[in-house]
Every structure is written in structure tokens, then in C-alpha cells.
Amino acid sequence: MREYSPLNRVNVEPEHLPVMLEETLRCLAPQPGETMLDGTLGLGGHAVEILRGLIPGGTLVGIDRDPQALERASARLDGVGGEYRLLHGTFDALGQLLREAGLGPDGALDGLLLDLGVSSMQLDRAERGFSFRNDGPLDMRMDPGAGESAASWLAAVPVEELSRVIRRYGEEPQAGRIARGIDRYRQEQRIETTGQLASLIEELVPRRGKKIHPATRTFQAIRIVINRELDCLRETLERLDRYMKPGGRVVVLSYHSLEDRLVKEAFRQRVKEGLFLAHPAGLLRPSETEVSSNPRSRSARLRAAVRPGG
Ligand SMILES: C[S@@+](CC[C@H](N)C(=O)[O-])C[C@H]1O[C@@H](n2cnc3c(N)ncnc32)[C@H](O)[C@@H]1O
User: What pLDDT, in 10s, does the model give residues 51-74?
Assistant: First the structure.
């Protein structure tokens, strides 16, 4: 764990809009003096509004695995004026991060938010290598300083494993064809850029009038594996009760069915065990107005749970 201390303060991209902000705040219901954690700080869109609700006397803790996100969010949080701490790391190491930052013991949180997936900044910046629309190095690491890039993973992964990953994490019906095509291609040439991979997939599975780009599902699958996204989520959901105070509220925003299934199952199980109560809000989806002003919210699903007592 490295506690983040902001050096270069920069402005936040104006196009970034936090998804389902109103619904998130309604479920988290931040109160003055409380301690809340945003485990996926991103550009701080949700965190800024949560922090406002915690003033006076409360603390917001923000975690992100992407150092650039911490830098950008801190510039925004400074403008709010409340107490906040930012920590660099992955949210599955939440207990350890909190202890190392002296914010333990476990069970210290009144609210916890996970807004899953990648941020608009990560997607839009070609050099981060997430996007098939903007050509850049095939990287896809949310933390560019940790783990293996997508290019080096793709160079070495056995073809059967590649096919399994694309089918499972991309829910791509053409997974076998795409994996075999990538395998043939890489025997001649290493795949180093997002543009190279996107056009290869477009050749392997032409569009045929479909709305989404043929590489969408494969890019999603590789990104999930490179960042251990589902493992991080599963491990965190298993231990959620430890971090929450009685009466503490948890909100998770997910963007594809694999994530949402994990959240739905985990909440159902914790409710059965008596560790959580289902939030009366149930499953929430973005309003039509939000989807039309922020198309990235289209696939969002919000689930919430409450720790009994308090
Ligand atoms: C969808 S964005 C969050 C946007 C944010 N709510 C906002 O309004 O600006 C997700 C962020 O979570 C981070 N992230 C994803 N998985 C993570 C993990 N396991 N641990 C820590 N950060 C993670 C990403 O780096 C990204 O910055």
C-alpha cells in the first residue's frame, strides 16, 4: 500500500458524469460525521458528492488502483473542503489498506461504494490501451505499474485458454473463431496495438449490420482477465460484513451481467445468513433521461444492502 499524496493537480475532464449519482446518494445517505469509502474513486464524481454529505466531522476514504485517477480526484475533492484520505491499491485488499492507513479496525465504515469497471478517462485515453476506437499500445492495465500488459498476455496465452476467456468473460459466441484467428496471426506478428487487434477481429467476424463493434466483447474479456476484475469483486463481496458498522450501507454499480450476477448472488447469500438486509430500493436502473444525456450509463445496474443494527 502507498498512501497517495497529490503532486500535480489537474482539472477533471468536463465530459465525465458520475453514473446514477442521485440513486447512489439516496442509498448511501451520507450523514455529517460518518466515515464512507469509495473503493473505485475514478475521477471522483461520486466521491465529491458523498464528501459534501459527510461535512462536518466526517471522512471520505478513496481507493483506486490507477494513480492517475487518484491525482485527478484529489484536485476535485480539494474543492469541497472536507476530510478525505486517498489510498492506492485494489479494493479486494480493503482491510489491509484501511489498517495500514491507520483507519481500522475492521467494521469502521458507514458507507461503501463500488462503481465497477473502467473510468471514462481510462477508456478515452489511447495510451491506456483499453479502446478499440482510439489506437494505442495494447495495455489495458488499470494500474500501469502492476501486472502484465494485454499485449504480453496475448502473446503467451494458450489458444484454448484464450477461447475460454473470450467466451466466458466476453460472452462472445464466436470465441473459438476469434481465438484461432489471433493464434494464426500471432505466429507471424506480435499484436502490440489496440488498432491491430480491433481490425483483426473485424476481419475474423465481420459486422453484418450489428450495432456493436465486433471487438467489443473480446476487449471486455481481455480487460477483465488482465485486471482480475471478477476475482477482486468476488473476494470483496465475501468479506463485506467485516468492514461495515451496524446500519452501514453498501452500494454496487455494475455494467455487465457477469458482475451483476456476482453482486446479486452475494447480497442474496449475505441476507440469508443475516449479515445484511436487502435495501428497500431493490434493483435500480438509470432513468431514460440519464441514458440520453450519458450513454455510458445505459448498462448500469445498482444494488444496495444494509448491515443490520445501528
Ligand atoms: C467506473 S470508474 C469510477 C468512476 C467514479 N465513480 C466517478 O464518478 O468518477 C472505476 C474506477 O475504479 C477503479 N477500479 C476498478 N477496479 C478496481 C479495483 N479492484 N480496485 C481499485 N480500483 C479499481 C478504476 O481504476 C477506475 O478508476
Answer: 999 999 999 999 999 999 999 999
Q: Is 88 in the pocket of ligand 1 (CB under 6 A)?
A: no
| Claim to verify: residue 148 and residue 265 sit in the same structural domain | no
Q: How far is the CA of 64 from the centre of ligand 1 (A)?
A: 6
- Same domain? 109 vs 148: no
Q: What is the Å distance from ligand 1's center to 283 Cα?
A: 21
Q: What is the pLDDT of residues 120-133, one digit of tens each?
A: 888 888 888 888 88
Residue 206 has which C-alpha cell?
465481420
With cut-offs at 50, 70 and 90, classify the pLDDT of residue 211. Answer: confident
In the chain, how many domains are there? Answer: 2
How far are the Cα atoms of 237, 277, 302 from residue 281, in angstroms, in the given order? 19, 11, 9
- To the nearest 10 degrees (0 to 180), the angle between helices 159-170 and 216-226 is 100
Host domain of residue 206: 143-226
